[in-house]
What does this fold into?
Amino acid sequence: MDLEMAGKVVLITGGSDGLGLALARRLVQEDAAVAICGRDDARLTEARQGLEALGADVLALTADVERAEDVARFVSGAVTRWSRIDGVVHNAGRSAAGPLEANDDAAWEGDLQLKVMGAVRLVRTALPYLRESHGAALFTLAMAAKAPGAASAPSSVSRAAGMALMKSLSKELGPEGIRVNAILIGLVESGQWVRGAAAAGMELPAFYERMAANAGIPLGRVGRGEEFADLASYLLSARASYVTGAAINLDGGLSPVV
Ligand SMILES: NC(=O)c1ccc[n+]([C@@H]2O[C@H](COP(=O)([O-])OP(=O)(O)OC[C@H]3O[C@@H](n4cnc5c(N)ncnc54)[C@H](OP(=O)(O)O)[C@@H]3O)[C@@H](O)[C@H]2O)c1
It folds into this structure.
């Protein structure tokens, strides 16, 4: 299936590790140019070098998407380099959950800045260019957006807001030929779990097996970054030209709701 991504430009927040990096690799295989950002310079440099080794046309910028000026710098950096934007992916995120009394106002504010305002600012800043390209926006969210569990806030609340933002923008921007979708992740292999396994003193395969068993994933395993990248690259591509306003579970069947 030809995704027709050759020559297209896609911006991915949080593209220096995990799912974002898996998507960047996939888009590079499709001959797209990618811009990635993250806060940790060393991790970002390693990601950039890995992508360049694949022959990528890549821009890697240190940016914290909780800060409006960093999002603006990320978008303007890509425009300066390529003079176009065909896709934006708000993927940067982290796990943030716990009992109500465990998260103070600052924790809530930080989570909303990262997950909600990061998406708002990314699409708003890139909008003139998405209009020109009839491009696509994609949000990496979590299963909790539709099915919040106990002690899952603030993340589940930010994710539900992200889903509402996606749906609202899909209706607002559809008439301009811009599509907006979301992927709701269950449990997928990524850098955050590599760090989790190390912290638990466990081998990674055993850690993933335990995660899948504890969660009761119907397909019996956690997902792979490449499986996220396949779905995400499809949603960004011309092959998904009639798909917008969709929040698609990528969870091995784990979610209790459609
Ligand atoms: N993997 C899963 O099972 C799972 C489940 C549910 C939801 N998700 C969501 O999927 C997305 C990707 O997660 P992942 O599992 O791939 O995590 P990951 O391996 O930890 O990667 C997260 C990426 O986001 C970047 N990032 C985090 N905070 C940022 C900030 N404030 N500004 C800019 N970049 C930032 C990280 O780089 P720096 O740390 O250097 O900034 C890194 O590149 C996240 O939104 C996550 O919440 C993942």
User: Anything to note?
Assistant: The longest helix spans residues 105-133.
